[in-house]
Amino acid sequence: MAKKKNIFKELHQLKQEEKEIHEKKVKEIVEETYHNQTIKLETYQKLKKITWYHYLIAILTSAILLGISFLLGIFAFKDIKKTEWIVVSFFVLILLIWLILGWYKNKQAAAYFNNHCRRYQSTLTDEEAIIKKNRKILLIIAGILLISSLIIFFTICYVK
Prior knowledge:
The protein is mostly helical. The chain folds into two domains: 1-35; 38-156, no CATH class. It is built from five helices and no strands. The chain has helices at residues 2-34, 37-48, 52-76, 82-113, 126-156. α3 packs across α4 (82-113). The longest helix has 33 residues, at 2-34. 13% of the residues are buried.
């Protein structure tokens, strides 16, 4: 019985040592990431910033999706009222892609810090900045599609 207690004490002590080593590694990674961060932060901010042509891309993508939905509604479904449902389906698809990109960003951050508790913390990497920029663009597209679907719903469906 005494042997079992000693084994359990040793296992508990080993787990505590592993935990301390892991915490030290995480602290080193965090210190390395945020040490001398001015250069990293400057490039990170430049990469995640949305410029005028990103807004143009979002507006053109929304216009193309609206055009496709009108074409599908008129020619494929033979009813203009189906256009609103197609716009809403594009909206849901864009939001789903937005959520998947957020999940991927959080998973990458957890792997970077080697700690799932820090998955929402910024890693200041170029890849994360690009993902954040793409998520912003997708959110702009989703907003335009939402407003367009509401306009289509209230004009086409209620005009008699």
